[in-house]
Amino acid sequence: MIIEEQASLKNSFAINSRAKYLITIESEDCLDNLEKFLSNNPGKVLVLSEGTNVILPEFYDGVVITTSCNHINKISNAEVKVGSAVNWHYFVNWCIDNDYYGIENLSLIPGSLGAAPIQNIGAYGVEVGTFVKSVRFYDFNDQAIKVFNSSECKFSYRNSIFKNMDILILEITFEFNKTGLNLSYKSIEEYIKYNNIDSSNLNQRQLAEIVQEIRKARLPDPSFIPNVGSFFKNPLVEIDSISISSFSLDDLIIWESDSGLVKVGAARLIELIKDQIPNNPNISLHANHALVLVNLGNASQKDVTDYANLIKNKVYKTFNIELELEPSIIKS
Ligand SMILES: Cc1cc2nc3c(=O)[nH]c(=O)nc-3n(C[C@H](O)[C@H](O)[C@H](O)COP(=O)(O)OP(=O)(O)OC[C@H]3O[C@@H](n4cnc5c(N)ncnc54)[C@H](O)[C@@H]3O)c2cc1C
């Protein structure tokens, strides 16, 4: 176990952030020492991995915990166990190299394995939860290691049971049973058609490259333009509850969903009201994607939350739709 004091915290929104303590857990053997440290230093605890889905405070007055468990163990032709510190995109490439099918559509999503089940990361018609057999984690409240199977994880759109638990994910077991590719997502279909690609001959690697090209054209790379990806979830609402006093339903992007509710494209909602959001010298919407907030250089956590609240209020007043944030706002 590594303990650092007054440590700086990496985060893709590039907020200059430090924590009182940063602890790195190298393996499960460290958990006894972690318990002792936490009982000697009572207070707030935050689990943080690559920091690509959090808006951090300038100072976190507590203990930040991360892991460096970076093993990938083949169990069978279908099953793989992976440590929480493995980088997600690295793992996608590893799966392609080792003929495990299914997560190539999730290529280039930033962040770690450990965070992937928390919000059930998803993109281009695929969600990680489909391939999770079980999640092994440390429960801070019970001070015990537990394993949840897939149904206990309660995966849903950008959500899982873990969002509301005080846990440290240590390892994920994946089960890959599929062999075919998932091409049935509108932007993938359009790309294939536009580029005259013979989809019957596509392999996993080529599909991953297509996904990467589509992503690069739309999403800013956080190494150059600090951001946390989509800032708001696509809201699920009753279609009759949408206010159409300023715009018509045809102006919106609306998908049917299984629940009887409709899913509304949050990016389009923001595009329609963005001219009414005052300029801010530290933060703005990305030119290619209205769902992405970018740090123009010196944004503080307050700049971000104020700006996000302006957007939320304007969307609510215009459409009677409540937007929900995707990244976690971490209190100081
Ligand atoms: C450019 C860009 C594009 C993105 N595109 C997508 C996308 O297409 N789809 C998508 O779903 N997401 C997307 N994201 C969001 C982000 O990549 C994912 O949420 C990712 O899983 C976060 O990983 P992380 O390691 O950075 O987590 P962090 O930001 O470090 O943490 C995120 C949350 O998970 C918790 N957490 C982290 N690690 C652990 C652990 N080991 N145990 C328990 N809790 C943990 C943290 O406490 C926090 O609440 C994007 C982000 C960016 C910057």
Topology (SSEs and partners):
Elements: E1 2-8, E2 18-25, H1 31-40, E3 44-47, E4 54-55, E5 59-67, E6 72-74, E7 79-83, H2 88-97, E8 122-123, E9 126-127, E10 132-139, E11 144-149, H3 150-153, E12 167-175, H4 186-194, H5 204-218, E13 227-230, E14 236-237, E15 254-256, E16 262-264, H6 266-273, E17 283-286, E18 289-295, H7 301-319, E19 328-329
Parallel strand pairs: 2-5, 3-5, 4-19
Antiparallel strand pairs: 1-2, 6-7, 7-12, 8-9, 10-11, 10-12, 13-18, 14-16, 15-16, 17-18
Bound molecules: flavin-adenine dinucleotide.
What does this structure look like?
- With 332 residues, this protein is of the alpha+beta class.
- 23% of the residues lie in helices and 27% in strands.
- It contains seven helices and 19 strands.
- It has helices at residues 31-40, 88-97, 150-153, 186-194, 204-218, 266-273, 301-319, and strands at 2-8, 18-25, 44-47, 54-55, 59-67, 72-74, 79-83, 122-123, 126-127, 132-139, 144-149, 167-175, 227-230, 236-237, 254-256, 262-264, 283-286, 289-295, 328-329.
- A hairpin with a 4-residue loop joins β6 and β7 (79-83).
- The longest helix has 19 residues, at 301-319.
- It is globular, with a radius of gyration of 21 Å.
- The chain binds flavin-adenine dinucleotide (FAD).
- Flavin-adenine dinucleotide (FAD) is lined by residues 12, 47-54, 67, 84, 109-112, 114-116, 118-119, 121-123, 167-169, 219, 222, 227-229, 328.
Q: What labels describe this entry?
A:
UDP-N-acetylmuramate dehydrogenase activity; UDP-N-acetylenolpyruvoylglucosamine reductase; 5-stranded antiparallel beta sheet; cell cycle; FAD-bd_PCMH; Uridine Diphospho-n-acetylenolpyruvylglucosamine Reductase, domain 3; binds flavin-adenine dinucleotide; alpha+beta; 19 strands; Uridine Diphospho-n-acetylenolpyruvylglucosamine Reductase, domain 2; peptidoglycan synthesis; 4-stranded mixed beta sheet; Uridine Diphospho-n-acetylenolpyruvylglucosamine Reductase, domain 1; 3 domains; 332 residues
